[in-house]
């Protein structure tokens, strides 16, 4: 029994998308047997999958932003129960933390949704490149699947990109030097894009309050640990998988850059740059109209006033005379009134 049988439907989807993009590139005049054509087919696979995941990416951005905004409140909860290790305090801390998540409709796992969804697709592509192409019709795991016929599988297997096959890997025995060089370049690109994407998210799109505390430390550790994981695992991946992962990193970085540039988190460095760009645009429009740019008023978003709680304060009665309040009657005046 094949342990990875559950991946077969995804292998079918991945193979079909690759073949459809291969046909598109062939229609545009590229050599169907070229390694560049098959590499671009993997790039097309990334574009198709990431376009389908845009709703999840939007949800991820909202969840990340909500987590950043509640970071100060989470820090207060953690400081409240700092040093308390009894069961009641732990339960209270967990309850208050979950109440914060529920109130802001977020949780730490929402930001991982796109990566979790892509993981099975990643392994399915790994299976297609490692078994479907190399198997070439032999055995239960090899050969074509879906639109990827045995002939196309053989064509993809024989195609080379800079002298390396898409199924070659850095640590594979007998892989040519060209495959090792191309794999090393792709691993460096994969690590660099992963690091820059994490840095872009944590440094430019987080308010100052969220740059300190346990959550900020976790983000910092992730920013350095995740690329290091790829340094270890990357040499085991085929060239085609490295192309896929590097391309999806570039897509993520570009998509994230667009969101941060046009819809930054309030209080972040990205928001400051966003306001500066808006101010510069309004000044240019004023100059084109012949107005003085220094008199242009930059429109700011309305700020909600904090809600007042408790009893309404009564207004104090003003003295209409505008002078000192009348003096209390003297004792002689009181005696005259009594007579």
SSE blueprint:
Layout: H1 8-27, H2 35-52, H3 54-69, H4 71-80, H5 87-104, H6 113-135, H7 150-158, E1 160-161, E2 164-165, H8 177-204, H9 214-233, H10 239-262, H11 269-288, H12 331-338
Antiparallel strand pairs: 1-2
Description:
With 339 residues, the chain is mainly alpha-helical. The chain folds into two domains: 232 residues, no CATH class; 31 residues, no CATH class. It contains twelve helices and two strands. The chain has a two-stranded antiparallel ribbon. Helix 6 packs across helix 7 and helix 8 runs parallel beside helix 10. It starts with 7 loop residues before the first helix and ends with a helix. About 6% of the residues have low confidence.
Number of individual domains: 2
Mean pLDDT: 76
Lateral strand order in the biggest sheet: 1-2
Structural class: mainly alpha
Helix share, percent? 55-70%
Helix count, DSSP H or I runs of 4 or more residues: 12
| Low-pLDDT ranges | 136-140, 298-313
**Helix-strand sequence:** HHHHHHHEEHHHHH
Q: Largest sheet at a glance?
A: 2 strands, antiparallel
Q: Roughly how many Å apart are the termini?
A: 118 Å
Identify the overall geometry: globular
What's the total count of β strands? 2
Task: Tell me the Rg in angstroms.
Answer: 32 Å
Strand content: under 5%
Keywords:
339 residues, mainly alpha, 2 domains, globular
């Amino acid at each position: 029994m094949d342990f990875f049988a559950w991946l077969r439907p995804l292998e079918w989807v991945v193979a079909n998308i690759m073949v459809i993009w291969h046909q598109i590139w062939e229609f545009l005049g590229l050599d169907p047997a070229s390694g560049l054509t098959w590499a671009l087919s993997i790039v097309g696979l990334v574009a198709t999958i990431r376009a389908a995941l845009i709703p999840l990416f939007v949800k991820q951005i909202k969840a990340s932003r909500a987590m950043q905004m509640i970071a100060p409140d989470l820090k207060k909860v953690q400081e409240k129960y700092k040093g308390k290790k009894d069961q009641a305090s732990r339960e209270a801390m967990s309850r208050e933390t979950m109440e914060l998540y529920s109130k802001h409709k977020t949780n730490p796992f929402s930001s991982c949704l796109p990566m979790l969804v892509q993981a099975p697709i990643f392994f399915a592509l790994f299976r297609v490149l490692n078994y479907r192409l190399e198997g070439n019709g032999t055995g239960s795991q090899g050969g074509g699947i879906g639109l990827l016929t045995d002939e196309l599988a053989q064509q993809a297997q024989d195609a080379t990109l800079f002298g390396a096959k898409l199924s070659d890997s850095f640590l594979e025995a007998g892989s040519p030097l060209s495959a090792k060089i191309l794999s090393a370049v792709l691993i460096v690109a994969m690590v660099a894009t992963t690091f820059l994407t994490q840095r872009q998210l944590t440094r430019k799109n987080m308010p100052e309050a969220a740059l300190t505390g346990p959550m900020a430390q976790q983000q910092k550790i992730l920013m350095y640990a995740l690329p290091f994981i790829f340094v270890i695992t990357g040499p085991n991946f085929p060239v085609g998988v490295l192309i896929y992962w590097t391309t999806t990193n570039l897509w993520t970085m570009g998509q994230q850059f667009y969101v941060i540039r046009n819809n930054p988190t309030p209080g972040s460095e990205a928001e400051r740059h966003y306001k500066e760009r808006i101010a510069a645009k309004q000044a240019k429009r004023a100059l084109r109209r012949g107005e003085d740019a220094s008199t242009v008023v930059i429109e700011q978003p309305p700020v909600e006033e904090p809600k007042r709680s408790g009893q309404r304060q009564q207004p104090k009665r003003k003295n209409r005379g505008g002078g000192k309040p009348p003096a209390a009657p003297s004792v002689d005046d009181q005696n005259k009134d009594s007579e």
